[in-house]
Amino acid sequence: MDRITFGGLLREARLRALLTLESLAEASGVSVRAISDMERGHSLPRPATLSVLMDALGLDDGERERLVAESTRRTRRVPRQLPPDLPAFRGRDDALATVQRLTSQVAEGGRHVVISAIGGMAGVGKTALAVRWAHQVAHLFPDGQLYVNLRGFEESGQPLDPGEALGGFLDALGVPSGRVPSGAEERGALFREQVASRRMIVVLDNARDAQQVRPLLPASAGCLTIITSRSQLSGLAVTEGAGLLSLDVWTPEEALDALATRIGAERCRMEPEAAAELVELCGFLPLAVAIVGAQLSVAPQLPLSVGVRELRESRPRLDALSAGDRRGDVRAVFSWSYRALTAETARFFRHLSLGPGPSLSAEAAASLAGTALAAARRYLRELTSANLVSRDAEGRYVLHDLVRAYGMELVKEEKDDRLPAETRLLEYLRHNASAITRVLDRRPGFEVPAPLPEGVTGVVADTREEALRWFRQEEATVAAALRSMNDPRLLPHVMVLTLDWVSYYSVMGRWADEISAKRIGLRAALVLDDPTAIARNSASLARALAETGRLDQAEEQVALMLGQMHRLPPAEQAVAERSAGWVRGRQGRHSEALDHARRALALFRTLGDRGSEARELNAVGWYLTLIGDHRQAIAMCEEALPMLRESGNRRSEAATWDSIGFARQRLGDLDAAIADYERSLRLYEEVLDTYNQADVLDHIASAHLARGDDAQARESWTRAARLLSAIGNPRADEMQARAEAPREVH
Sheet holding 390-391: strands in order across? Predict the structure, then answer.
């Protein structure tokens, strides 16, 4: 039986006591609204409030203990991913009545119901109905709503991979990125486990087929799954017991009502025949009526008869959406909206349709079109007003797949050159990542960023928060670009694109995302036979694989990297040796790690690169102490310190003090070790390195524990757990466990 939440327990106790919400509120002094929120899982009470409620309910000791225990559980994240309900939604009374009956089977009978809302043509309003339905019944599902556009029908022919959709669901449910497996099957199992005791709505929009949907279905009885698709998903009815609902176009009355809502009832009354013909020319298709209404609303002086004439004369038709017998011509509607644009906005629209993913930031869109950001924002406002573009919850700009298909047809008609646009987008993602990485990783020694190519928008990030916000904003675009931009002429850009995303992937622990990206970059490097790019991509890939415990696969990448050594310049050889040493250290092959580090050190010295030489002195010292040569380790690290101060590399100086402290702790000098660790911690705090702060706190705790100071050890491990939890790192649980059992020496 699923775990009953606090709200469920409270409601059961109230019903056993034969009390209404109002009578319990009167007896306890707690408001009806507050009690209702608790029962629906929207809030938990304070201890004093809970006490008066339990007194009013007359609970025995066992019931009190259970309620108190449940009230103190950490609340689960409640996702609210539904798109906004459409204010101009009209009609669908019969369909809504049908789905309300189906919903009651979930709410009352606890049966998991799958609904496929489908229609004969795109734009029939499947998504609008699904969203309206979900909003109407959301109160019955207190654990939230998940939504994903599966992109089943797009011009690119690239539906959203179920594994990618599951990754988004797991993130919304609060699963730390470090715990999200890379495989779709494993992600599906984890998703079903996460929702097993929840009552949720899951909206799977624009599905390609049943095969794409099945991995995304929750197995719990309390979940309602709503699917929209242009395909007849009869297979789901056979194997999953899905209820199928087929949508037709609006009735003439519904279409006229919707048009009047958008342009004004008086305007329709003034020209009733023209208004009726307009919606007929739209085929009573909700998408077409919405676009016509938007266009007319921004031209209030235009007679409806003129709109009728232009719409009637617009040809040829958008083949995929032609229903025949004048039931509508969506391409004509798109064409009408398109022709109303200025020449500059029309060009911008065509370039926007070349975007690799479902949405783009304003900066990415500006780069794709090669325009200034201020101008791009003006064009986007005009396109949004014309209903050719919408915005998602994150503020990105979205082209509906049908509008995108129309825009790509225009690209071909106008003979726009696609290659420069896609090149600018890739350069936007690469150059800005290179510049913004300096905020995330404040080590000196980065190459001065190259000037932005012409037409590419630059982004400024002055704080760590701004830097992370930009990376989060564009990570989906990077993934989509790598997946879909297959022109061989773009391979040099693909090859180097993700190299400047390494720091972000590391800070966020997005190892699965990095592995996917690096494999694509490595394939491009191999095709182009670029030894430096091969070495760098394989080094990053090896590190990410090692972080996820796939040491055998990491070994393959190290072998590939080292196989390029004879083709690399000395500086790249040194970096490769350093990377190989890191992986060997993670593999527990400390003597081999030391050998690689010493070779890297020798190369850096030959090159006169004092900053890198100092960093590698610390690496040598670290591996020395791992093999037990603690005094020599301290000597190497102390040699590095003045060089690191000279170069201003605070992060590596922090790492070096940590290495010294680690060696001194192994020698039994606990007071000196703790002092060294504290120096390291202060430096890591200055450079905002959360992960390594936690690592040093772990070392500090172990030293305090060895000294017999349990309280200090517990405090340090608790701080480490908080830091790791803040960045979603799975080691947070490990640190918390140590804090709760500090007498165990680690």
Answer: 359-360, 397-398, 390-391
